[in-house]
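Blinded run. Sample ID left blank on purpose so nobody reads anything into the name before looking at the predicted structure. Input follows.
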Amino acid sequence: MTMHNSWGGARENSPLKAKKINLLQKVKDTVIMNNILSKCEVYMKKGFTLAEVLITLGIIGIVAAMTMPTLIKKYTNHVVETRLKVFYSQVNEAIRLSEAEYGDKKEWANGAPDNTSDNIQTAYLSRDEWFQKYVGKHMKIVKKELNIPAISGWNSGGNLYYLANGSAFGFIQGTIRDWIFFPGNPDKCLKRHPYPLGRCAFAFNFYPTSNNEGWQFHYNKGVEPWKYQWDGTLDGLKSACGQSSGKFCTALIQYHNWTIPDDYPFQVSY
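Blinded prediction complete.
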């Protein structure tokens, strides 16, 4: 039965029209599904099966588990090496600049407070005042703490100064002679290691005034890795670095051009 609309045209019966629409939709859906199945078949022929994918992922996981620790160690070593070298360069450049302003470092190094028995005189300046006058003003210090915890292998704590790259350094044992450098967070280092030196903390000395036996590697020098009583040999550094105190480890790294050698006795961190 055909009906006419108000404009005079023929209008198809609604139920019949709905059946046609449904039939067309089914045909369309079938064509789409066939296309999808055809493409999947092509992809299956060209690609991997599920088993092959799982095997590949398993191999990748095994390789990653084997290589990641080595990659992490290399990256950590690189960060520690770089920050040690940068600190050594920056602090000694600061000392050179102060020598240009105040004269020979042996003269104003004597004006620093030191409670060790072999220091020449007790200064009128506090450790922090001395540091700010002769060193700190030439370095980009972002934070300071004036009483850090005691370090295993040394006595009491001292002053601590933070750099923008996340490292920190300061004086130990109530003196400006004995320095310590942290390539990362000092609190994290001290909580992690009962003996941090050579691992996450590194020993330096600033003692340009003494040419007594044992101090010859520090006489007339700036801030240098700990070399007190070093015999001058690589074997001597290796042996001393391997001890629990770890004071000579900084000198061992410097000996290798600020690179941690393959036979280094500790795993470093920052």
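Unblinding after everyone has recorded impressions. Confidence is low (pLDDT under 50) at residues 1-12, 115-124.
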